[in-house]
Task: structure prediction
Amino acid sequence: MSERKRFYEDLEVGKVEVSTPMTVDRDEMIEFARRFDPQYFHADEAAAAESRFGDVIASGQYTMVLWRQLDHRIAHDIAWICGVGWDDVRWPLAVRGGDELRARSCCLDKRLSNKDPGRGVVRYRYELLNQDDDVVFSCVSTNLVETRTGTDGASNSA
Result:
C-alpha cells in the first residue's frame, strides 16, 4: 500500500512541524569529519581539546546531514520535485557528540510556478534545535513541489 502524498495544495503557510529527536553519535561525527572535513577541531580529538571549542565539534556538512535525516521524518510524504536554493544558511552554535537534536520546519510562503502549472514553489525556514532548544543550524530553502494535478516536467526552473 502506498503512502498518501502531500501536494502543493496540502501545504499550509505558517504551519510548523517538529521531528522526533536524534542523539549525535560522537564516533560517527568524528569519522565523517576524518573522511570529508578533516579540520583539526572536527577530526582530531587531542588537537580539538586544545582549541577554543575544548573538544571536537561537528562539521557544518555533518550538521546538515543530520538535519536532512530529521527533516525527512516530518517531510517524507511531500511530493517533492527538488530543492532549487538555500538562503541565509547559518550555524550559530556548535554541535557536539551526545547532543540531542530535532528538526523544525515552517512553511513561509508558496506560489504556483510561472512556467509549469504542474508544480508549486514553496519556501521553508528550516532549523535544527539542540536539547536546550537553541538553534544550531538554519536556512531558508526554495523548493519545487508537485501540484495534485501535476505532471513530470523535464525543466526544474521555477
Observations:
- The longest strand covers residues 100-112.
- The beta strands are 16-18, 22-23, 80-90, 100-112, 119-129, 135-146.
- The mean pLDDT is 94.
